[in-house]
Request: fold
Amino acid sequence: MKTTVSIFTKITLGVLFAASIAACNQNKTPDKPATPAASSSKPEIVYINEDTVTTKYEAAKDMRKRLEDKGKAAQSDVGGKRQALQREIAEYQKNAATMSADQRASTEQRLQREGQTEQAYEQNAGAQVQNNQADETKKLYEKVYDFTKQYAKENGYKMVLTFQSGNTQLLYADPSLDVTADFLKKLNDAYAKDKK
Reply:
């Protein structure tokens, strides 16, 4: 009987000992290396919705308006030259029957040269519009990039990503990491200061 009691006592003491160790470990936090992210509740990586910035950034709106105006002016200019050439061709066709063979030949050659000149002018105008668009887009990108570097530095972000609808680079991000509204407000404020 004594051995039964001593076995029972040992088991009871073992269970109590194990329970006390488990209870002590519940209040203890696991050892983690101290990292800046663990000590700060502010995220180090955030993202900006590029679609929103593209549509609501005032500098981007102004750029689109400038490019649209330049494109319309180029179209109008090219269209005017094309119409003038078409009028000359129509005039020639109307008077061709009364012209001598030499007059017809020289007029046709002149109209052909003018047609080629008009075509080259149209191509150059299109290329100029594309070059303007590329230059303006590059300047806008550089402006946003420089602002983003400053914004990240001021807010303690180590990385600022962009999110764009249909872009498979970023499939999901927690909405709490979206700083688009604050970024856009400050970006537009900076643009308004520069514009004055």
